[in-house]
Protein backbone atom coordinates (compact mmCIF):
# COMPACT_ATOMS: atom_id res chain seq x y z
CA UNK A 1 0.00 0.00 0.00
CA UNK A 2 2.74 2.38 1.06
CA UNK A 3 4.80 1.38 -1.96
CA UNK A 4 1.79 2.02 -4.24
CA UNK A 5 1.33 5.45 -2.71
CA UNK A 6 4.99 6.33 -3.23
CA UNK A 7 4.71 5.14 -6.83
CA UNK A 8 1.62 7.27 -7.37
CA UNK A 9 3.28 10.29 -5.82
CA UNK A 10 6.37 9.87 -8.02
CA UNK A 11 4.27 9.27 -11.13
CA UNK A 12 2.18 12.39 -10.57
CA UNK A 13 5.34 14.37 -9.84
CA UNK A 14 6.96 13.34 -13.12
CA UNK A 15 3.69 13.94 -15.02
CA UNK A 16 3.49 17.36 -13.42
CA UNK A 17 7.05 18.28 -14.30
CA UNK A 18 6.62 17.01 -17.87
CA UNK A 19 3.61 19.30 -18.20
CA UNK A 20 5.53 22.22 -16.70
CA UNK A 21 8.31 21.59 -19.20
CA UNK A 22 5.77 21.50 -22.05
CA UNK A 23 4.34 24.82 -20.81
CA UNK A 24 7.85 26.34 -20.75
CA UNK A 25 8.45 25.32 -24.35
CA UNK A 26 5.07 26.70 -25.44
CA UNK A 27 5.80 29.95 -23.58
CA UNK A 28 9.13 30.22 -25.40
CA UNK A 29 7.38 29.82 -28.77
CA UNK A 30 4.83 32.47 -27.76
CA UNK A 31 7.59 34.84 -26.59
CA UNK A 32 9.32 34.47 -29.94
CA UNK A 33 6.06 35.17 -31.79
CA UNK A 34 5.38 38.19 -29.55
CA UNK A 35 8.79 39.63 -30.45
CA UNK A 36 7.98 39.16 -34.14
CA UNK A 37 4.54 40.73 -33.66
CA UNK A 38 6.07 43.83 -32.05
CA UNK A 39 8.63 44.08 -34.83
CA UNK A 40 5.81 43.97 -37.40
CA UNK A 41 3.56 46.39 -35.50
CA UNK A 42 4.93 48.49 -32.60
CA UNK A 43 1.33 48.99 -31.37
CA UNK A 44 1.02 45.24 -30.62
CA UNK A 45 0.42 44.61 -26.92
CA UNK A 46 -0.67 41.02 -26.23
CA UNK A 47 -2.11 37.91 -27.83
CA UNK A 48 -5.83 37.35 -27.47
CA UNK A 49 -7.60 34.01 -27.01
CA UNK A 50 -10.82 35.60 -28.32
CA UNK A 51 -9.16 36.74 -31.53
CA UNK A 52 -7.61 33.28 -31.84
CA UNK A 53 -11.00 31.63 -31.43
CA UNK A 54 -12.62 33.83 -34.09
CA UNK A 55 -9.68 33.16 -36.41
CA UNK A 56 -10.02 29.38 -35.92
CA UNK A 57 -13.78 29.38 -36.54
CA UNK A 58 -13.69 31.70 -39.57
CA UNK A 59 -14.15 30.52 -43.15
CA UNK A 60 -11.73 32.65 -45.16
CA UNK A 61 -12.03 30.51 -48.35
CA UNK A 62 -9.02 32.37 -49.74
CA UNK A 63 -6.73 29.36 -50.00
CA UNK A 64 -7.19 26.02 -51.72
CA UNK A 65 -10.80 25.03 -52.56
CA UNK A 66 -10.75 21.78 -50.56
CA UNK A 67 -9.70 23.52 -47.32
CA UNK A 68 -11.93 26.61 -46.87
CA UNK A 69 -11.37 26.77 -43.09
CA UNK A 70 -9.35 25.35 -40.17
CA UNK A 71 -12.46 23.48 -39.13
CA UNK A 72 -12.58 21.53 -42.42
CA UNK A 73 -10.13 19.09 -40.82
CA UNK A 74 -10.02 20.09 -37.13
CA UNK A 75 -13.83 20.34 -36.60
CA UNK A 76 -15.37 23.31 -34.74
CA UNK A 77 -14.59 21.75 -31.36
CA UNK A 78 -10.87 22.04 -30.49
CA UNK A 79 -11.35 19.33 -27.85
CA UNK A 80 -12.55 16.83 -30.46
CA UNK A 81 -10.41 14.72 -32.76
CA UNK A 82 -10.23 15.87 -36.36
CA UNK A 83 -9.58 14.05 -39.59
CA UNK A 84 -7.30 14.78 -42.55
CA UNK A 85 -8.91 14.85 -45.99
CA UNK A 86 -7.23 11.49 -46.56
CA UNK A 87 -9.07 10.07 -43.56
CA UNK A 88 -6.32 10.00 -40.93
CA UNK A 89 -7.09 10.97 -37.35
CA UNK A 90 -5.86 14.35 -36.03
CA UNK A 91 -5.45 14.66 -32.27
CA UNK A 92 -7.40 17.51 -30.63
CA UNK A 93 -5.83 20.97 -30.93
CA UNK A 94 -6.84 21.91 -27.36
CA UNK A 95 -3.84 21.73 -25.02
CA UNK A 96 -6.05 20.27 -22.27
CA UNK A 97 -6.61 17.24 -24.52
CA UNK A 98 -3.21 17.06 -26.24
CA UNK A 99 -0.69 18.46 -23.73
CA UNK A 100 2.30 18.51 -26.08
CA UNK A 101 0.57 20.77 -28.63
CA UNK A 102 2.65 23.83 -29.66
CA UNK A 103 5.77 22.70 -27.80
CA UNK A 104 7.98 21.76 -30.78
CA UNK A 105 8.98 25.00 -32.56
CA UNK A 106 9.92 23.22 -35.78
CA UNK A 107 6.61 21.35 -35.94
CA UNK A 108 4.65 24.52 -35.17
CA UNK A 109 6.47 26.43 -37.94
CA UNK A 110 5.93 23.61 -40.44
CA UNK A 111 2.19 23.28 -39.88
CA UNK A 112 1.44 27.01 -39.79
CA UNK A 113 3.35 27.40 -43.05
CA UNK A 114 1.38 24.61 -44.74
CA UNK A 115 -2.04 25.14 -43.28
CA UNK A 116 -2.09 28.95 -43.57
CA UNK A 117 -1.15 28.46 -47.21
CA UNK A 118 -3.88 25.81 -47.69
CA UNK A 119 -6.64 27.70 -45.85
CA UNK A 120 -5.75 31.39 -46.27
CA UNK A 121 -3.60 31.33 -49.38
CA UNK A 122 -0.87 33.25 -47.56
CA UNK A 123 1.44 33.00 -44.56
CA UNK A 124 -0.09 33.79 -41.17
CA UNK A 125 1.23 36.79 -39.26
CA UNK A 126 3.04 36.31 -35.93
CA UNK A 127 0.02 37.93 -34.21
CA UNK A 128 -2.38 35.43 -35.80
CA UNK A 129 -0.18 32.48 -34.80
CA UNK A 130 0.17 33.77 -31.23
CA UNK A 131 -3.59 34.36 -30.92
CA UNK A 132 -4.25 30.85 -32.27
CA UNK A 133 -1.89 29.17 -29.78
CA UNK A 134 -3.17 31.32 -26.90
CA UNK A 135 -6.74 30.23 -27.64
CA UNK A 136 -5.82 26.54 -27.89
CA UNK A 137 -3.76 26.71 -24.68
CA UNK A 138 -6.87 28.06 -22.90
CA UNK A 139 -9.12 25.29 -24.22
CA UNK B 1 -9.07 -12.14 -73.88
CA UNK B 2 -7.82 -9.06 -72.12
CA UNK B 3 -11.01 -8.83 -70.09
CA UNK B 4 -10.73 -12.52 -69.24
CA UNK B 5 -7.20 -11.98 -68.00
CA UNK B 6 -8.33 -9.00 -65.99
CA UNK B 7 -11.24 -10.97 -64.55
CA UNK B 8 -8.93 -13.77 -63.51
CA UNK B 9 -6.50 -11.28 -62.08
CA UNK B 10 -9.35 -9.53 -60.30
CA UNK B 11 -10.72 -12.66 -58.66
CA UNK B 12 -7.36 -14.04 -57.70
CA UNK B 13 -5.89 -10.76 -56.54
CA UNK B 14 -8.88 -9.65 -54.49
CA UNK B 15 -9.01 -12.91 -52.59
CA UNK B 16 -5.28 -12.60 -52.02
CA UNK B 17 -5.03 -8.89 -51.29
CA UNK B 18 -7.96 -8.67 -48.95
CA UNK B 19 -6.42 -11.39 -46.84
CA UNK B 20 -4.96 -9.41 -44.02
CA UNK B 21 -1.60 -11.14 -43.70
CA UNK B 22 -0.40 -9.96 -47.08
CA UNK B 23 -2.02 -6.53 -46.79
CA UNK B 24 -0.63 -5.84 -43.34
CA UNK B 25 2.88 -6.71 -44.46
CA UNK B 26 2.81 -4.87 -47.76
CA UNK B 27 0.92 -1.74 -46.77
CA UNK B 28 3.15 -1.25 -43.74
CA UNK B 29 6.39 -2.07 -45.51
CA UNK B 30 7.95 1.42 -45.55
CA UNK B 31 10.69 1.58 -42.94
CA UNK B 32 12.36 4.90 -43.78
CA UNK B 33 11.77 7.07 -40.68
CA UNK B 34 11.37 10.44 -42.46
CA UNK B 35 9.00 9.01 -45.06
CA UNK B 36 6.94 7.32 -42.36
CA UNK B 37 6.78 10.44 -40.24
CA UNK B 38 6.13 13.09 -42.88
CA UNK B 39 3.93 11.21 -45.36
CA UNK B 40 2.20 9.32 -42.57
CA UNK B 41 1.17 12.54 -40.80
CA UNK B 42 -1.74 12.93 -43.23
CA UNK B 43 -2.30 9.62 -45.02
CA UNK B 44 -1.20 6.01 -45.15
CA UNK B 45 2.44 5.57 -46.09
CA UNK B 46 2.27 4.27 -49.64
CA UNK B 47 4.90 1.70 -50.58
CA UNK B 48 7.12 3.36 -53.22
CA UNK B 49 6.86 0.32 -55.53
CA UNK B 50 3.32 1.40 -56.41
CA UNK B 51 4.54 4.22 -58.70
CA UNK B 52 7.46 4.72 -61.10
CA UNK B 53 10.29 7.03 -60.00
CA UNK B 54 9.14 9.78 -62.38
CA UNK B 55 5.79 9.95 -60.59
CA UNK B 56 7.47 10.33 -57.20
CA UNK B 57 9.68 13.07 -58.65
CA UNK B 58 6.61 14.94 -59.85
CA UNK B 59 4.69 14.51 -56.58
CA UNK B 60 7.55 15.35 -54.22
CA UNK B 61 8.64 18.17 -56.55
CA UNK B 62 5.35 20.01 -56.05
CA UNK B 63 4.43 19.47 -52.40
CA UNK B 64 2.95 22.96 -52.07
CA UNK B 65 0.16 21.69 -54.36
CA UNK B 66 -0.26 18.20 -52.98
CA UNK B 67 -3.66 16.79 -53.97
CA UNK B 68 -5.42 19.96 -52.86
CA UNK B 69 -3.21 20.93 -49.94
CA UNK B 70 0.10 22.58 -49.18
CA UNK B 71 2.30 19.79 -47.80
CA UNK B 72 5.63 21.56 -48.27
CA UNK B 73 8.68 20.31 -46.39
CA UNK B 74 12.06 21.89 -45.66
CA UNK B 75 14.50 20.93 -48.34
CA UNK B 76 16.87 18.45 -46.68
CA UNK B 77 13.90 16.38 -45.50
CA UNK B 78 12.15 16.61 -48.86
CA UNK B 79 15.29 15.51 -50.73
CA UNK B 80 15.85 12.53 -48.41
CA UNK B 81 12.29 11.34 -48.83
CA UNK B 82 12.46 11.74 -52.61
CA UNK B 83 15.69 9.71 -52.69
CA UNK B 84 14.07 6.91 -50.69
CA UNK B 85 10.95 6.88 -52.88
CA UNK B 86 12.80 6.90 -56.21
CA UNK B 87 15.35 4.31 -55.11
CA UNK B 88 12.53 1.95 -54.20
CA UNK B 89 10.10 2.93 -56.96
CA UNK B 90 8.30 0.32 -59.04
CA UNK B 91 10.73 0.78 -61.94
CA UNK B 92 13.86 0.98 -59.79
CA UNK B 93 14.76 -2.66 -60.25
CA UNK B 94 14.70 -3.03 -56.46
CA UNK B 95 11.21 -4.38 -56.39
CA UNK B 96 8.84 -6.56 -58.34
CA UNK B 97 7.80 -4.61 -61.41
CA UNK B 98 4.32 -6.15 -61.56
CA UNK B 99 2.86 -2.79 -60.59
CA UNK B 100 4.46 -1.22 -63.66
CA UNK B 101 2.55 -3.40 -66.13
CA UNK B 102 0.77 -1.33 -68.77
CA UNK B 103 2.48 1.95 -67.82
CA UNK B 104 3.70 3.65 -71.00
CA UNK B 105 7.16 5.20 -70.96
CA UNK B 106 5.85 8.62 -71.97
CA UNK B 107 3.22 8.75 -69.23
CA UNK B 108 3.78 10.05 -65.69
CA UNK B 109 0.99 8.53 -63.61
CA UNK B 110 -0.17 11.31 -61.25
CA UNK B 111 -1.50 9.00 -58.55
CA UNK B 112 -1.57 5.32 -57.60
CA UNK B 113 -5.28 4.97 -58.38
CA UNK B 114 -4.56 5.88 -61.99
CA UNK B 115 -2.01 3.11 -62.44
CA UNK B 116 -3.19 0.40 -64.89
CA UNK B 117 -2.68 -2.35 -62.28
CA UNK B 118 -4.89 -0.46 -59.80
CA UNK B 119 -7.65 0.16 -62.32
CA UNK B 120 -7.46 -3.44 -63.47
CA UNK B 121 -7.92 -4.84 -59.98
CA UNK B 122 -10.47 -2.31 -58.69
CA UNK B 123 -12.44 -1.67 -61.89
CA UNK B 124 -15.28 -3.93 -60.76
CA UNK B 125 -16.13 -1.90 -57.67
CA UNK B 126 -18.84 0.76 -57.80
CA UNK B 127 -17.90 4.38 -57.03
CA UNK B 128 -20.14 4.14 -53.95
CA UNK B 129 -18.06 1.32 -52.47
CA UNK B 130 -15.15 3.76 -52.16
CA UNK B 131 -17.32 6.32 -50.36
CA UNK B 132 -18.29 4.04 -47.49
CA UNK B 133 -17.54 5.53 -44.03
CA UNK B 134 -14.47 3.42 -43.30
CA UNK B 135 -13.04 3.97 -46.77
CA UNK B 136 -13.95 7.52 -47.91
CA UNK B 137 -11.30 7.73 -50.63
CA UNK B 138 -9.91 5.47 -53.30
CA UNK B 139 -6.43 6.10 -51.99
CA UNK B 140 -7.27 4.76 -48.54
CA UNK B 141 -6.01 1.23 -49.23
CA UNK B 142 -6.32 0.18 -45.60
CA UNK B 143 -10.04 1.00 -45.62
CA UNK B 144 -10.50 -2.40 -47.30
CA UNK B 145 -7.13 -4.12 -47.14
CA UNK B 146 -6.63 -4.62 -43.44
Describe this structure in words.
- The complex is a heterodimer of chains A (139) and B (146).
- Chain A has a two-stranded antiparallel sheet with strand order 1-2.
- With 139 residues, chain A is an all-alpha fold.
- The mean pLDDT of chain A is 91.
- Chain A contains five helices and two strands; from the N terminus they run H-H-H-E-E-H-H.
- Chain A has a single domain (2-138), classed as Cytochrome c-like domain (Cytochrome Bc1 Complex, Chain D, domain 2, Orthogonal Bundle).
- The longest helix of chain A has 39 residues, at 2-40.
- In chain A, strand 1 (82-83) and strand 2 (89-90) form a beta hairpin.
- The termini of chain A are far apart.
- Chain A is globular, with a radius of gyration of 17 Å.
- Chain B has 146 residues and is an all-alpha fold.
- Chain B has one domain (2-143).
- In chain B, helix 4 (53-60) packs antiparallel against helix 5.
- Chain B is globular and about 40 Å long.
- Residues 6-13 of chain B have low confidence and may be disordered.
- The chains are: A mainly alpha (139), B mainly alpha (146).
- The interface between A and B is medium-sized, with 16 and 20 residues.
What structural class do you assign from the helix and strand content of chain A?
mainly alpha
Task: Let me know the largest β-sheet of chain A.
Answer: 2 strands, antiparallel
CATH-level-2 architecture of chain A: Orthogonal Bundle
Strand order of the largest sheet of chain A: 1-2
Q: Percent range for helical residues of chain B?
A: 40-55%
Please give the oligomerization state of what you see.
Answer: heterodimer
Topology pattern of chain A, helix = H, strand = E: HHHEEHH
Q: Number of DSSP helices of chain B?
A: 6
Number of strands of chain A: 2
Number of domains of chain B: 1
CATH class designation of chain A: Mainly Alpha
> How would the global form of chain B be characterised?
globular
Main sheet overview of chain B: none
User: Which regions of chain A contain 5 or more consecutive residues with pLDDT less than 50?
Assistant: none
- CATH topology name of chain A: Cytochrome Bc1 Complex, Chain D, domain 2
Helix and strand succession of chain B?
Answer: HHHHHH
Helicity range of chain A? 55-70%
Output mean pLDDT of chain A: 91
Distance between the termini of chain A: 36 Å
The tally of beta strands of chain B, per DSSP, is 0
Amino acid sequence: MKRALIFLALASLSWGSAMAFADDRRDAILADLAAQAVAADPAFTAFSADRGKAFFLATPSSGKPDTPSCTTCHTKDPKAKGQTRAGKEILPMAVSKTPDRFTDAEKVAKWFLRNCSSVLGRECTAAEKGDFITNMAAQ
Amino acid sequence: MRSLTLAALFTGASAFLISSAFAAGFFHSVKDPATKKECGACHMVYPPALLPARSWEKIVGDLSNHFGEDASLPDPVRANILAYLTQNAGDSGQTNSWFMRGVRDNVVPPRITEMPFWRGIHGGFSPASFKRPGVKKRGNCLGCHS
